[in-house]
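ingest -> validate -> predict -> emit
validate: passed (alphabet ok, no gaps, 132 aa)
predict: started
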Amino acid sequence: MVQFKIVISDKQGKSMSHELKDKEAQPILGSKIGDVFDSTVVGISGGRIQITGGSDKSGTPMRSDVHGGVKKYVLLSKGVGMQDSKKGNRIRKLIRGNLITEEIYQLNCKLIDTIFPEKKQEQETTESVNKE
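emit:
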């Protein structure tokens, strides 16, 4: 059973969470960080969604430069999975690859080409009030 929690954010800074199970999650399986898919998979009309990252069930972060869907110990100096790094420090940490598999629990995405429907309605009402 495949189950994802998708957190989608737009350019305005607003984010929403949506849960996908079984058949709804199948189109996302096998894609990688940076891939773009249609937003109707999540239930948002119009626009596209780009995968920016995620984590698995144990909280291990995904990293775009580790290929495949495996967990690896990688020597990090900066970037995803590395916190509180001082200049010159390198730490070997456990990181998950960039491929989306059944072990992934949360996906972080950004909305491209559009904003959330609630924001659009608010903008339309403020524009009509400003015109009058």
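The chain has one domain: 3-67+97-131.
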